[in-house]
Design goal:
The complex is a heterodimer of chains A (83) and B (207).
Chain A: H1 6-14, H2 23-41, H3 46-82
Chain B: H1 13-21, H2 25-47, H3 50-67, H4 77-97, H5 100-105, H6 108-112, H7 125-139, H8 142-153, H9 158-165, H10 169-206
Classes of the chains: A mainly alpha (83), B mainly alpha (207).
Chain lengths: 83, 207
C-alpha cells in the first residue's frame, strides 16, 4: 500500500469501512434531534408570538428612553454647573 | 470496524429541503438515516475519541434540527450537515486546546485500531491495510486529516469541500495534494516500522 499513487490512496480512503457506532446511542442522538426539530417546526401559540414581537419592539424604545432621560439630566447638570 | 459503507450520499435535496421547511419530521428521519452514521464516523476520525465524537454528533444534529425549517431552498444537505459538524469540531478543539488533560488523550481512536504485525499466515491483509490507513490518518495534522476525510472517505465534491472548509478551490487542491503526500509518507513510515517489528518478532522466535 505504501507504493500507491495518490489517486489509489484516495480510493483506499473511500473504501474504508464505517467505524462502529453504538446503535442505541445513535438512536438516542436521533431522537433528541428529532424532538428539537419538531419543537422548532411547531408554531408557538399566538399569545407567545405576540409577546415576542411586542418585546422586540418595546425593548429598543425602553433603552432609548433611558438614554434620553440620562442625556437630559447630564446636560441640565452640566448647564447648572456652568452657571 | 463496521460494515462496508454504501455508495456516496444520494439525497433528493430539493424535495427534502422543501419537506424540512414545512416541518415534516419524516424528512428529518430520512436525512438522519442517510447521514447519521457518516457524520459520526467523520467526527470520530477527526477527533480520535468516541465520547467526543458522540457529543459533537449530538451538537451537530441539534443545530441542524433548529435550522432545518429555515433552510434556503437550494441548500445541499450533505455539505451543509458536514459544515455544521466540522464547525462543531473546530469550536470544540479551541476549547480542548486550553485543557491539557484532553490534549494528552487525543489519538485514543488510533490506538484502538492496533496495527497487527506482518504475518501473512495469521493476519488478513485487508484488515492490516485498513488498520495501517486508519493509524496513518490519525497521525496527520487536523487540517490535512479533515480534507482527506471529506474528499477521500466521504467522497464529497471538491468544490463543496472548499466551501465547507471556507477556502478557495485552488487552496483546497493544494491542501489536498499536501495531505495526500503526508498520508503516503506516514503510511510508508508505519509500514517500515511494522516490518522491523515483524522481523524482530521472527528473529526472537527462532533464537
Amino acid at each position: 500500500m505504501s507504493h500507491e499513487e495518490p489517486d489509489d490512496l484516495l480510493r483506499a480512503l473511500r473504501d474504508l469501512p464505517s467505524p462502529d457506532v453504538d446503535a442505541a446511542r445513535a438512536a438516542r442522538v436521533g431522537r433528541h434531534a428529532r424532538a428539537a426539530f419538531v419543537e422548532s417546526a411547531t408554531p408557538a401559540p399566538i399569545l407567545v408570538r405576540l409577546g415576542v414581537v411586542t418585546g422586540r419592539a418595546v425593548m429598543p424604545v425602553v433603552l432609548a428612553s433611558i438614554i434620553g432621560v440620562y442625556l437630559v439630566w447630564a446636560l441640565s447638570a452640566a448647564t447648572a454647573l456652568v452657571r | 470496524m463496521g460494515p462496508e459503507r454504501p455508495d456516496p450520499i444520494a439525497l433528493d435535496d430539493r424535495a427534502l429541503v422543501e419537506r424540512l421547511r414545512r416541518g415534516d419530521a419524516r424528512a428529518f428521519d430520512e436525512v438522519y438515516g442517510a447521514l447519521g452514521g457518516r457524520i459520526h464516523g467523520f467526527l470520530l476520525r477527526l477527533s480520535g475519541r468516541h465520547d467526543t465524537a458522540e457529543g459533537l454528533a449530538q451538537e451537530t444534529w441539534l443545530r441542524f434540527a433548529r435550522s432545518a425549517t429555515t433552510l434556503d431552498e437550494d441548500t445541499r444537505l450533505a455539505p451543509w450537515v458536514f459544515t455544521i459538524a466540522r464547525n462543531a469540531f473546530v469550536s470544540h478543539r479551541r476549547w480542548a486546546m486550553l485543557d491539557l488533560s484532553r490534549v494528552v488523550t487525543l489519538g485514543a481512536f488510533a490506538e484502538s485500531a492496533p496495527l497487527p504485525a506482518q504475518d501473512p499466515e495469521s493476519v488478513h491483509e485487508r484488515a492490516r491495510a485498513i488498520a495501517l490507513l486508519e493509524r496513518a490518518l490519525q497521525a496527520l495534522p487536523v487540517a490535512s486529516r479533515e480534507v482527506l476525510l471529506l474528499v477521500g472517505v466521504e467522497g464529497l465534491d471538491q468544490e463543496e469541500v472548499a466551501r465547507i472548509l471556507g477556502v478557495g478551490y485552488d487552496a483546497l487542491r493544494q491542501r489536498l495534494k499536501r495531505a495526500r503526500d503526508q498520508l503516503a509518507a506516514e503510511m510508508e513510515k508505519l509500514e517500515k516500522q511494522t516490518k522491523t517489528a515483524g522481523r524482530r518478532v521472527a528473529s526472537g522466535g527462532t533464537a
